[in-house]
């Protein structure tokens, strides 16, 4: 692996961002992994007409096609305004062509006196270190995969099976900025289908059409844990589900719908 770029994106001003090689996905160095894409859209949503005392609780990203490693623009609008519940919509474009869209619910934070109820078991401890990340032979590891630090607990990108991994970004989403908790969760969440895949990625291509991330609280700290599994059936499609956690426990879920085809 080559050293990652200094950030996933360089700001261009006016809502524009230049994707660096750190955004490149495992399928091709020319197209972005959807993790940074989701993070950049989430960043724009958080910054659009913020309302004190509210938080972004759910983001659904629709991937309209391959997102090139190139300059992009992100625009956000309010679909349903409100003091307690707001629906926002974002669009990412490349040279005027839409490449991704997203909706997000921004809702009032729950009262401090509300009793907590979390049913997921605590995540496994963060491993002190793991073997170097391995992927299928033709996979591109010099983009997003090397811009993230991975500590595998169970599974591998190189072989089928559910997996659990701790991860953090080695670089910020946007140069010169600190990532927010929402951005950190979104940048990782799209890796669920790789961590939890039940198919041999050397033989089968899996491409997610969407990503939904729902968070009942904001994550804390750089290191996040993801436990993912993928279900797939002949004459059907694939569905990947993941639990997201930090050192204090589970904080949300991720869901992906995937196309499966022969490579």
Automatic annotation (TrEMBL):
Q: Which domain of life is it from?
A: Bacteria
Q: Which Pfam families match?
A: 4HBT_3, 4HBT_3C
Q: Where is the Acyl-CoA thioesterase-like N-terminal HotDog domain?
A: 24-106
Where the record annotates domain Acyl-CoA thioesterase-like C-terminal, the positions are 136-260
The species this protein was found in? Actinomadura rubrisoli
Q: By its UniProt entry, which InterPro entries does this protein fall under?
A: ACOT8-like_C, Acyl-CoA_hotdog, HotDog_dom_sf, TesB_ACOT8-like_N
Q: What is this protein called?
A: Thioesterase family protein
Q: Which Gene3D superfamilies match?
A: Acyl-CoA thioesterase, double hotdog domain
- Signal sequence residues: none
């Amino acid at each position: 692996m080559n050293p990652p770029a200094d950030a996933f994106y360089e700001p261009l001003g006016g809502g524009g961002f230049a994707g660096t090689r750190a955004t490149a996905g495992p399928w091709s160095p020319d197209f972005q992994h959807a993790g940074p894409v989701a993070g950049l859209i989430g960043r724009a949503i958080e910054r659009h007409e913020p309302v004190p005392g509210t938080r972004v609780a759910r983001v659904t990203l629709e991937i309209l096609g391959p997102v090139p490693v190139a300059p992009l623009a992100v625009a956000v609008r309010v679909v349903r305004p409100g003091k307690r519940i707001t629906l926002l919509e974002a669009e990412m474009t490349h040279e005027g062509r839409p490449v991704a869209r997203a909706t997000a619910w921004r809702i009032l934070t729950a009262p401090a006196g509300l009793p907590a109820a979390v049913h997921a078991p605590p995540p496994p401890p963060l491993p002190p270190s793991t073997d170097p990340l391995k992927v299928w032979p033709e996979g591109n590891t010099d983009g997003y995969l090397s811009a993230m630090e991975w500590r595998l607990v169970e599974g591998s990108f190189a072989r089928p099976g559910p997996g659990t991994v701790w991860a953090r970004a080695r670089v910020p989403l946007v140069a010169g900025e600190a990532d927010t908790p929402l951005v950190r969760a979104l940048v990782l969440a799209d890796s669920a289908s790789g961590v939890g895949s039940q198919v041999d990625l050397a033989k089968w291509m899996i491409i997610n059409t969407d990503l939904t991330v729902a968070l009942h609280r904001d994550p804390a700290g750089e290191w996040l844990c993801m436990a993912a599994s993928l279900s797939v059936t002949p004459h059907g499609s694939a569905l990947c589900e993941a639990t997201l956690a930090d050192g204090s426990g589970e904080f949300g879920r991720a869901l992906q719908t995937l196309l499966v085809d022969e490579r």
